[in-house]
Each structure stands twice: as structure tokens, then as C-alpha cells.
Amino acid sequence: MAAHRSGPLKQQNKAHKGGRHRGRGSAQRDGKGRLAPKTLSKKVRKDLSRVDQRHRASQLRKQKKEAVLAEKRQLGSKDGPPHQVLVVPLHSRISLPEAFRLLQDRDTGTVHLIEWGNTHSFMLLCPRLKHRWFFTSARPGDLHTVLDMAKVADTILFLLDPLEGWDSTGDYCLSCLFAQGLPTYTLAVQGISSLPPKKQIDARKKLSKAVEKRFPEDKLLLLDTQQEAGMLLRQLANQKQRHLAFRDRRAYLFAHAADFVPSEESDLVGTLKISGYVRGQALNVNSVLHITGHGDFQMKQIDAPVDPFPLNPRVIKSSKDPGTAMEICAADAVADMEEDLKVLMKADPDRQESLQTEVIPDPMEGEQTWPTEEELSEAQDLLKESSKVVKKVPKGTSSYQAEWILDEDGESGGEEDEYDDIEHEDFMEEESQDEGSEEEEEEECETVTLGESVRDDVYDEKVDEEAEEKMLEKYKQERLEEMFPDELDTPRDVAARIRFQKYRGLKSFRTSPWDPKENLPRDYARIFQFQNFINTRRRIFKEIEDKEVEGAEVGWYVTLHVSEVPVSVVEHFKRGTPLIAFSLLPHEQKMSVLNMVVSRHPGNTEPVKAKEELIFHCGFRRFRASPLFSQHTAADKHKFQRFFTADTALVVTVYAPITFPPASVLLFKQNSNEDVLWFKPVELRTKWGRRGHIKEPLGTHGHMKCSFDGKLKSQDTVLMNLYKRVFPKWTYDPYVPEPVPWVKSEISSTVPEVDME
């Protein structure tokens, strides 16, 4: 019988270490006078048992779950802001009024219609579900409005066509929304019940496959009946909210009402009163307010009027008849708003953020005193010592030629410099070998008189300019085909030393030094610079999380008094343009140089040249600027790109207000349809007395949809009144010479008439 032998996987225990064991008393005596080591990290590490670790992990999960539930319960509740839903139809066949009719179910709750301009919105109050919604809409053709309203919407409701899902305009709108950042969204299909029963299943399968590319793992809801609309509302109320980083750290407000009070000095500028619900963070009256598309402004005070859309309206019993009761809601609350108006905060001039956007440059800041004679003499001596360099050069080489010869022991800046050194050595060897032959050739040389055609001043006298132009055109086409982005032809009408006087030669673009503060333009004296941008951003974000802000809390219905606002802001609002306001973080009203990493959309094929005016959507801002393009590398110098290439990501550099990242960036090129939207706020009129306005552009050739207050006649003409100010030219001259006298003479009728001076 064989004995058992342990395998190689047997557990090997540590051997017992024998010896003298120290007692507690001896350990205390040895450590007498010693201090405990200081903890290097801020967080003290605690050795927890396995049970304690599980308990701690369960507590963290419970806290996160409670935070998500609290956020879900607050949104749309009586203490929080209404649940704002943006309805976007992605196909031209979608009927937006029909969708709104289904959502405005009187049995579900109370409906309050809100109309300004051509925009139709409504507030839905549902006490049974303990939720209130604010529905608004935007067409994909009006892209800037869609993007602006998506910045403040809690949920976007996309309406799809049962057969195609979305058309080309809807697809482009989706691409822009994905690039900007999507909040919580829901997909609903309208019109699938109108199809034959046999085709409904196939249509839903095809639509699900098409939707998977854009929205993976998302369910499609139906919106054809009141019952389906009720299920959609429950889905909107119970959805988990997605966060957008650029709005979670700032207070923002969507205007439900706006009023303008002109100032005493001018009717064009005054105080704008914006009413709406505070969202994101608490709003302080001393912070700077940014109105999207219009600029930065200061607030004078914040009022706290009565909420016009309470979830549970107040019930007041009549004193005359105790049996009758009266509900106070939207219309009555607005009427009693002035009576119950309460001033929440007033701006403190000592603590209010300044509106200064630029640094006022000092013209004498760059000046310096004239150096003394001793400093000049010392500088000349140092220059002479540094300029004296001994080189080994061929016999007969002038000092000018010696400046172009590299040292054999010189350091090379890369592969190109090594190649230049090898080429130089070959040149030196050839020159040394030909010294003897040159002496022999000197004896055979004779004096020859050169012809006039070889002179420099008549070198190009007989050149055919037309042929030269054709050759130059062929050369340019060839170079464009080869796609060399860093090559530039020498100018023909300007001297090269003048054309390239701002350029310099570098031994190596990667390693050669270049002072970043050298030869800066005058505009750089107007911008603000950070000593450490990352630390400043981290400090501001930490203050937002830790410090409690005094002001209007999230969910309060407030009225902001914004000072020095042009009247055009409220005029845009009355025509249907959404009015959106964001509070700025410290320093975000100041101008600086912004660098943004962008990549080109594959659907865009038109050339975009540097310094061309583009429209920017940067976080919560919208502005126009002419950017520069450069390569996105990790070096300290970046090559300039003349065009926006489609294959790689580029860095866009522009003068703009400071915006702390993360923030999405979208760039748009000015087209003819954007040209129509530029004139959308201007009123139209006709020669026969009709008045109207632009609704939306059609295509990209300047066509548009317009609505008028009556039917137009065939012989009528549509006009737009545009005005500009005219100023006199500065042509003042105090010197006026005496006028030359005119000679008057009588001319007989027989003599031909001539002009005489």
C-alpha cells in the first residue's frame, strides 16, 4: 500500500517566529516622548472589517438612491419647478396641434394655455399624479430656437413618423442636439393607428431597426389616443433625469412673462422684468445675468410674486356665504400678484459683480526708460564678445559666407539637420578637390564683353506675360492636387521681404524656443489672463458645492429686474423668440482667448476658411466670431490651418467671454436661410397696407414663409423698412484761398458760343 504524498498545491503555512515577546509596559517605555506620525492625506484611512465594508457600501447605495428619488419627486412637484417638456416633430408629416390636443386632456388635469407670438405652449396641472408639466414646441427648421430651448428643457419629446421616422431636416436637427448634449428624452410615434392592421406590425419593426442607430435600447411609445397620451405622461414623470454639466452649476430661468420699463433718459434702454421659475442652482441678485443671444446684464432686485400655476390652488371660503368656495389659480393669481408682491433681494453695489469685460490698456505700460552710458557700453562689450566666433572655412571665404557655414561639431536639431551636415561635408570635399583645377582654369580664362540681354534690368523684357499666367495657373492647380497645406507661393506684386516680414526661420519647429509673449497684438492688452486656470476653475466649482448661496431657491417663481437692457430684447420675446437667462460664474463676463477642440461633421462638405465669420453655440452662449484654426497636438507651438479639414480634430481660437468647461461647442456657417432668420424680427408691409412677419425660411436660396393680416393681391409688393444712421465726413479745412474772379464778356449772336473762364 503506497503512502499519500502531498501535491504541489498544498498550503504552506508560515513558520512560527520564536523569541522574546515585548509587553505593553516595555513598548510604552521605549516609545516615551515620541509623537504619532502625521497623516499626509486629508482623508483618514480606516481599516474596516468585511461586515463594515458591506454596511458602508449599502449606505452609499441607499444615499444615491434617495438623492435620485428626491430629485425626481422635486421636479414638477408643488415645491419644485414645473417639468418643462420640449416637443420636437422630426418629420414634416407630424401634426403638432394634434399631439397637443391629446396631451391637453381635461380629465387628467387643469390646462392653462400660454401664447406669445407664434409659439403655442400650455401648462398641465395634475393633482392626481402630483405633477405639473410645461409643454412647449420648436420646429427643426428653426435650429437656433431648438438648440436654445434644449439647453433649459428637462425632457425632449421627439415625435416620429410611422413610416420614415425622421426626414433630412429632422436628422440634421438630431445631429446638432447630440453634439450639444441631450437631456432626458422620450420617443413617441404619431399616426401608426391610421395604417392598416396588417402593416402596423411591420411598420413598428422597421421603425425600431431605424431608431436603434440613433437611440439604442430605447422604447417607442404611441401617441394616437387619450389613453396612450396618459401613459406617455406617466413615462415622462417617472423617467430618470440626465444632467448637462454646463447648466447644473449655474442658475437659469426660462421666461414665462416679460415686461419692459423704459428709462428716463431714453426709450430704447430700460429695465426688463423677467418672470419664471429658478432652476439649476440658487440665484443671487449680485451675480451677472446672461440673456442668450443678447449679452450680459446686471440685476437690481428679485421679487417673489405669487406662483401663477400652483399644483394645489388655494381655496377661499366666502364670508357672506360659508357654503361657497372659490379657487385661486392662474388668472386670479396674476391679478393679485401686485398685492402679494414681496421684494426678495436688492443688489448691493459693494458686492455686485462688475460688467467690465475688457482691460483698459495703459499706453505707457510698454515704455521703458533710456539706458545709461555705462549700460550701453557694457551691452556693446558683451555683444562683441558673443559675436566673435572662430570658424574653420575654405580659403578665400568672406565673412558673409562664413555666417552660412555650420560648425562640424554643432548640435543637430533632428533628422533634417543631420542631412544638412552630410550635404555640407560633401560640398567641402568637392571644393577641396577642385582647388587645383580652378588654378589651371584661371590661366585659360579671357575677358569677354557681355551683351545687353544678360543685364539684370532687362532680364524679363521679352517675357510673354500671358504664357506666364497660364503656366502659373497650371502650377497652382498641380499644387492643389498634391495637397501640400504648408506651402505658399511667393507674391508677384509685392516684394517677398515685405510679404514675409512677420515670419521667421526656425531650426526645428518642435524644439526651437519661441517666447509666447513676444510681439503680441494690441488686442492682447484688452483681455484677462489667469495665473492658473485649472486651480481657479477647481476653486470656483468647490465653492458651488460647499458654500450656500443667498438668494432665490430652486423652484421659486421670481421676477428679475434687469437693468440697462435694450428694448429689442422684449420685442424679440413678443414675436415668439424664447427668452432664456443664465447666471454667470465669477470671471465669466470677462473677455479672453478661448481654445476649443472641434471636429467637422461628415455631412458638411463646403470649404470653411480661417477668419471667416461663424456662429458659435458655446455652452449657454450664442455669438458670432471669426476664429483661427490650428493643429491639435501636445507641443508648445501649433501650426496654423488655412481651412477646416474634415479628417482630424482642430483647435479653434477666438476672442470670447470666459466659459469654464465642460461646455459643448457647435459651429455654424452663415447661409442664405440663416440670412432670412436674421431679418425675422423686422415687420413686413406691403404697398396696399398689409402688415406681417417672417415665419420660417424655405430652402437655401432666400425664400421664406410669411404671414399677413389679410389676403395679398397679385399686384401688391412686399416691403421691409430698414434704416441706418448717416454721419458727416471729417472734411473740415480752415484754410480757404481767395476765389479766382470770373471774367464776364458779351458774345454776339454771330460768334459761336464758347465756354470762357
TrEMBL record:
<dbReference type="GO" id="GO:0005525">
    <property type="term" value="F:GTP binding"/>
</dbReference>
<dbReference type="GO" id="GO:0000479">
    <property type="term" value="P:endonucleolytic cleavage of tricistronic rRNA transcript (SSU-rRNA, 5.8S rRNA, LSU-rRNA)"/>
</dbReference>
<dbReference type="InterPro" id="IPR030387">
    <property type="entry name" value="G_Bms1/Tsr1_dom"/>
</dbReference>
<feature type="compositionally biased region" description="Basic and acidic residues">
    <location>
        <begin position="65"/>
        <end position="76"/>
    </location>
</feature>
<dbReference type="GO" id="GO:0030688">
    <property type="term" value="C:preribosome, small subunit precursor"/>
</dbReference>
<keyword id="KW-0690">Ribosome biogenesis</keyword>
<feature type="compositionally biased region" description="Acidic residues">
    <location>
        <begin position="427"/>
        <end position="446"/>
    </location>
</feature>
<dbReference type="GO" id="GO:0005730">
    <property type="term" value="C:nucleolus"/>
</dbReference>
<dbReference type="InterPro" id="IPR007034">
    <property type="entry name" value="BMS1_TSR1_C"/>
</dbReference>
<keyword id="KW-0539">Nucleus</keyword>
<protein>
    <recommendedName>
        <fullName>Pre-rRNA-processing protein TSR1 homolog</fullName>
    </recommendedName>
</protein>
<dbReference type="InterPro" id="IPR012948">
    <property type="entry name" value="AARP2CN"/>
</dbReference>
<dbReference type="Pfam" id="PF04950">
    <property type="entry name" value="RIBIOP_C"/>
</dbReference>
<feature type="region of interest" description="Disordered">
    <location>
        <begin position="1"/>
        <end position="82"/>
    </location>
</feature>
<dbReference type="InterPro" id="IPR039761">
    <property type="entry name" value="Bms1/Tsr1"/>
</dbReference>
<feature type="compositionally biased region" description="Basic and acidic residues">
    <location>
        <begin position="46"/>
        <end position="55"/>
    </location>
</feature>
<dbReference type="Pfam" id="PF22298">
    <property type="entry name" value="Tsr1_G-like"/>
</dbReference>
<dbReference type="Pfam" id="PF08142">
    <property type="entry name" value="AARP2CN"/>
</dbReference>
<dbReference type="GO" id="GO:0003924">
    <property type="term" value="F:GTPase activity"/>
</dbReference>
<feature type="region of interest" description="Disordered">
    <location>
        <begin position="427"/>
        <end position="456"/>
    </location>
</feature>
<dbReference type="GO" id="GO:0034511">
    <property type="term" value="F:U3 snoRNA binding"/>
</dbReference>
<feature type="domain" description="Bms1-type G">
    <location>
        <begin position="81"/>
        <end position="242"/>
    </location>
</feature>
<dbReference type="GO" id="GO:0000462">
    <property type="term" value="P:maturation of SSU-rRNA from tricistronic rRNA transcript (SSU-rRNA, 5.8S rRNA, LSU-rRNA)"/>
</dbReference>
<comment type="function">
    <text>Required during maturation of the 40S ribosomal subunit in the nucleolus.</text>
</comment>
<comment type="similarity">
    <text>Belongs to the TRAFAC class translation factor GTPase superfamily. Bms1-like GTPase family. TSR1 subfamily.</text>
</comment>
<feature type="compositionally biased region" description="Basic residues">
    <location>
        <begin position="13"/>
        <end position="24"/>
    </location>
</feature>
